[in-house]
Input
Amino acid sequence: MANMMVGRLEVQDTPLRDAIWFRRCVSFELAGDRYTVSKAYVHGYHPRENERLRDQAGALVELLHADTAYPPGSVVLEVGCGVGAQTVTLAVQSPEAHFLSVDISADSLAEAEQRIRAAGLTNVRFHQADIFALPFAEESFDHVFVCFVLEHLSRPAEALEIFTRLLKPAGTLTVIEGDHGSTSFFPESDAASRAIQCLVTLQRMVGGNALIGRQLYPLLVEAGLEAVKVSPRMVYVDASRPDLANAFIKKTFTAMVAGVRASAILAGLTDSDTFDAGVRDLYRTAESDGVFCYTFFKGVGIKGRPA
Output
């Protein structure tokens, strides 16, 4: 059985190894007798994915961010800002707050900064950093905001503990995540369900968790936060919302699933005909007699003051 080396870890010739080879963006860290995965983004870093993220942000502004606003003068850390898809909304809705947005990808940060400049915003600074090695002193920020990041981490609980330490007492940590297991649609399709499961499995293979939305409450409590509140944010689409059918079903969710086609086939999770049938059936739910439903989860916790 042929093996390959990824960093310091030898990976056997399995679908996991093939998926790792294909993505070429996975790095490993030894942690005792096991390993964790860092810097693994199952959707990839390419222009179409950046466009999908922008479409997603635009479609979900009201649903996810209507109740997100920070007081004048507050300093907010946005972790994992990516291409700035959420950053612009945050900065617009809290024009007198100061944002420091960080990401590990220099290319993503460059695009995010360009988006901020194009929007004429001046209350955002950017910094390149690893989530698990953030170069900031404890209690440096009034608030921390994290959106669609935990699902890609092999150690989400550790990350939340880091974010909590960076908060000042009485500061808030806001986390937004999806949950692919919440997806339901009509017409029903086993092929579409299997295509979605390919994405869930691939994300698990590289250390992430596409079902993490349902876990936000216990994760935030375990991080030591108080007064934790989690609210489901459901996207429901039928023929009465053709704008959302295009923006969310087609350009956001189905585009996300379709984007892992090559990885899923290479990893042995499906074949091209089955996967393509599933994607077609997902697009089919955007037609006049189709229905689509998906749930995001938004959690907010407060850092307690010292006893």
